[in-house]
Write a structure and sequence with these properties.
- The structure is a single chain.
- The protein has one domain (about 5-460): Amidase signature (AS) enzymes, CATH 3.90.1300.10.
- It contains 13 helices and 15 strands.
- Helices cover about 35% and strands about 15% of the residues.
- It is α/β, with parallel strands linked by helices and about 475 residues long.
- The two termini are about 15 Å apart.
- Helix 2 (about 25-40) runs antiparallel to helix 3 (about 50-65), helix 7 (about 225-235) packs antiparallel against helix 13 and helix 9 (about 305-325) crosses helix 10 (about 335-345).
- The longest helix has 22 residues, at about 305-325.
């Protein structure tokens, strides 16, 4: 039986294009047809450029016919989170304040994607200004999880993960300012990479809402696809001084090179913060899988102060929101759930904001010391499984009251520390809903995390898990 084109990985598509058994035009049209059938039940794609995608696919097909393919992403359909700037497409950031925004030029990572020959399908849904862990806004409404459309895929890259999980292209670009790659990847059974600060250079996009905490996030159904995307986007650029920490782009060979006997610190719980038992059981099983691959996995104590990190994030994130909203004319038209966050941000004192920035510096120094002893840290990706898609956050986790960021306790500190984090699928829960975990590496160890992910993927493959959506 011939595999449906929309189910194929980027790596498989590149092989098919090279051999001539598939065409980028055929595949792009198949994915556009898939979106036409399925997107209405998910609301993942909020702007579709079918004509532009088919034109790009025709150019890609010509390159393959002439033996001039640009690399492994040439002809690969990709969706782009609506907090990223694609020339000629709306860039609303999920806000009515930007509903007429039509930028003329790509921001840098998008320009790199185009240069690699990728087919840019359109934009995916986000919560307004990407500051929440579900995906809803007043412009486009809520996005559903392909595994259960009544539930959220998480956020803020909810539209991105729903697209890949539903077969709307094998790769998606998102962002990650506090877990927006790893948590939604976990909720939808995908691989999600949050790179180190500067590993993917950025310029030409929206203003930084989280100082340097937010980075480009990469999504795929396999390590190979995410690795190929990182290689294509990771060249340094002098316009992003953070990127100058890295002399060259990641190579594919580097994503196969893991330590001989990696040492992994397993942190299943963060203090007294609640976490659902099925999540702990699934991540315990993932830890055992990693041991079977030759990793040394040891449970230990939290090597940093999670309460201090949470407090720093609580100062930085609302302040960034308030800055952006004020620049765009004020809070009268923002999502009601953001009103309180806006007011909180306006009330943050400059001294508290500076203290939060200084805490980030201290945490980065502290974690550099931790990673002299360990190759990676293993934790769940989220403390809760997906909840109703129209609710901002789960108020109860494991029978305990939880605040707005209770589900996100495992992820935000990684952004504060500037570290890479790789989200991977664990065993699904008793209802068949995906569960995710994350591996965190030392600064700059993005490729090593992908190599660890390859070890795990070989023993516990997940690529054939698909949600029960229309064929």
């Amino acid at each position: 039986m011939i595999e449906a084109a929309w189910r194929l990985s980027a790596a498989d598509l590149h092989k098919a294009y090279t051999s001539g058994t598939r065409s980028p035009v055929e595949v792009t049209q198949a994915i556009l047809d898939r979106i036409a059938v399925v997107n209405s039940s998910l609301n993942a794609v909020v702007h579709l450029d079918a004509a532009g995608a088919l034109k790009a696919a025709e150019a890609s097909a010509a390159r393959y016919r002439d033996g001039r393919a640009l690399g492994p992403l040439d002809g690969i359909p990709v969706t782009i989170k609506d907090s990223l700037v694609v020339g000629g497409m709306p860039a609303t950031w999920g806000s009515q304040l930007l509903q007429d925004n039509l930028p003329p030029a790509d921001e840098l990572p998008i320009a790199h994607l185009r240069a690699a020959g990728a087919i840019l399908l359109g934009k995916t849904n986000v919560p307004e200004f990407t500051v929440q862990g579900y995906t809803y806004n007043l412009l486009f409404g809520a996005t559903g999880n392909p595994w259960n459309p009544a539930l959220t895929p998480g956020g803020s890259s909810g539209g991105a993960v729903a697209s890949v999980a539903a077969g709307f292209g094998p790769i998606a670009l998102g962002t990650d300012g506090g877990g927006s790659t790893r948590r939604p990847a976990g909720h939808t059974g995908l691989v999600g990479l949050k790179p180190s600060i500067g590993r993917i250079a950025r310029t030409g996009g929206f203003p930084e809402i989280y100082n340097d905490l937010e980075v480009i996030g990469l999504f795929g159904r396999s390590i190979a696809d995410v690795a190929a995307t990182l290689c294509a986007l990771s060249a340094p650029d002098p316009r992003d001084r953070h990127s100058l920490a890295f002399p060259a782009a990641v190579t594919m060979a580097e994503t196969f090179a893991s330590p001989t006997r990696p040492r992994i610190l397993y942190l299943p719980r963060f203090g007294a913060n609640p976490v659902e038992p099925e999540i702990i059981a699934a991540v315990d099983a993932a830890a055992d899988m990693l041991r079977q691959t030759g990793c040394v996995v040891e449970t230990g104590d939290l090597p940093f102060d999670i309460e201090a990190a949470t407090a720093a994030l609580a100062a930085l994130m609302p302040t960034g929101l308030a800055m952006i909203v004020d620049r765009l004319g004020g809070p009268a038209r923002i999502t009601p759930a953001l009103q309180q966050m806006y007011e909180t941000g306006k009330a943050v004192r400059a001294t508290d904001y500076l203290a939060a920035l200084n805490h980030a510096v201290d945490l980065r120094r502290q974690m550099a010391e931790v990673f002299t002893q360990w190759d990676a840290i293993l934790t769940p990706s989220a403390a809760a499984q997906p909840w109703a898609k129209d609710r901002v956050f789960p108020e109860i986790i494991a029978g305990e009251n939880a605040g707005p960021r209770g589900h996100a306790v495992y992820t935000g500190w990684v952004n504060l520390a500037g570290l890479p984090g790789l989200g991977l699928p664990a065993t699904p829960d008793s209802k068949g809903t995906p569960i995710g975990f994350q591996l965190i590496g030392g600064y700059g160890q993005d490729a090593m995390l992908l190599a660890l992910g390859r070890r795990y993927e070989a023993l516990s493959p997940w690529a054939e898990r698909w949600p029960a959506l229309p064929a």
